User: Fold this.
Amino acid sequence: MTAVAPSAPLTRQTSAPGHPSARLSFGRLVRSEFLKLFTLRSTWWSLGIAALLTVGLAAMIAGASSSFGPGLSPVAAITLPVQFTMLVAGILGAMAITGEYSTGMIRSTLTAEPRRGRVLVAKSVVIATTLALLAAVTSAIAGLVIMPILGADAYAWGDGKELWLPLLLSVLAMATFGLLGLGWGFIVRNGAGAIATTVGILFVLPLVLQLFMLFGESWQWIVDLGRWLPGNAAAALTDLDGEVFWPSLAATVAWPVGTLFLGWAVLRTRDA
Assistant:
């Protein structure tokens, strides 16, 4: 009789959830966030509304400019609609995370990637990239639309920084508005609350601070504070005013960075 040697136990090539090989790479995490964002109908509605506002308002501004005589820069006609599309950008950023909290998907997200800071960074990359691309594409389309309205002989596009820098800065501004909304979404975790806070900072608060102009010079310092709100700072940024350019750039970037930092602190300390 021949003895049968015991076979070696079968080994399964599996990894524990906490094992490094089981963790998502950052590229895959970003890809999953893109998929989640673009499978929402609200995303497409937001992007479509922002595109229509950019092109439509640019055309209206270009058409109305003939009433004021020559001198309007076509670049200004393209960048001015940002003061309206910033609301759409902020709302989109807020909905990108609050929707996960309302449906409970955030628990699945944090189970797949327990390192919460990476989740926040991945969502920030997706929102900033999406809105930057939207702003770049719609600005190009708006430029093509207003050219026959303004007339190349009557209005100079300018060159160098007068042409490209305001457009690039408007792209940056749109990305920061979306990140501001995303940060408040992480902080508040409620869709209505995050949207109301974002719209309040971008649109309502500047109007409230302007009312202090009626109370005399003793309240002028409050009016001056309004210059550093996100929307006003971004508007001053695209005007290329040399005296306030760098402070405006700092304010434009500081608002979303500070808000996202607070969102990261909340994400780390609260349960999903």
